[in-house]
């Protein structure tokens, strides 16, 4: 058989495998450095019985960077760890690693080695009576796929959740499957910005995961933050305190505890926790971003207490806090250039110090991002609308971006705020000119969305009458 035919035959088998090379992990090129940092942090600071899973992902990231030899070293680490972590299931748990080996060897032109790993997969599939020679359908494989998707960003969260759901259908009380499912639902709740108690779908999965993993401090920290989201802060604080007394995944617990205490109003405590986290994970996007928000919160507190007119020492403190926030946000964006929230926060900070041109440039970068969350897109449009209205004094441009938010179908607090801003601006403009057809139409649209049909009809009819009058006045009397 020719090399070309042999290569084609191997490729036909490779595409049947379940591994990182076939899971269609959605990762932008600009996200790879941050993903690699997060994987390294997971290896060092996340307490898990599945470090082999993390090394498999590291191998794939190394491949994406063109570092195939280093990728092979990571796969060797994964293989060794799986032997230790899952001695009684080592064949089954090694399928992903062998699949990754086979793909890597294929990409490196080492076809004979690729065949060796394909044979390992085939033998294991036969051992477990799989109907497919190179593909195993089992909850353990669904779980492996779920973890890979979960670690690769928001575009993959729905599929991650589906993988863990599928695994739980087979083994509903499995601690690992329950943990993965709980984290996936938490991320989706946060990603989709759900705020209503009825929408906090992740509460039950998180509580179940803790029941099955009572020592897992990371899950306790997630549950604490979500309880705070839905107004159960006192119960949430009990979980945070429990998590902080544990040494399990402590660096990650610090991040969520900091978020909890900042939102509770204990910003100094939050900053202390973030300082500890940053000592261990200096390249963490999350920690730098969280710290910037803490500085912003402190800055707003000073401005409020001085009736928004800080002077002397207070003014100096405000300036220092702004500069610290800007520094952390710029670091955040260096580490992860696709972070839409950080762009918006940074633009606001520059607007705060009067650098409107810089703020405009940063907002434009945010507006050009490929945003996969409709809620983040709403937030970017809304904050840019506020910038146009309050800083640039352009009501017309503000209306354009508030309308972009309102025209999205996803209900959210950001959409509600945009409707309110639109209503106020349109009413204000009508006070100056009650014959403004555009603003009459906008008010009709807003009241229609709010369910206030009589008011909507009133404004639409006024706009139609004026529109008909304009047409007649310019000769459209057909």
From TrEMBL:
TPR repeats lie at residues 251-284, 437-470. One of its GO terms (cellular component) is cytosol. SUPFAM superfamilies: TPR-like. It comes from the Eukaryota. Residues 61-88 form a coiled coil. GO terms for molecular function: RNA binding. GO terms for biological process: defense response to virus; innate immune response. Keywords: Antiviral defense, Coiled coil, Immunity, Innate immunity, Repeat, TPR repeat. Belongs to the IFIT family. This is Interferon induced protein with tetratricopeptide repeats 3. The gene is IFIT3.
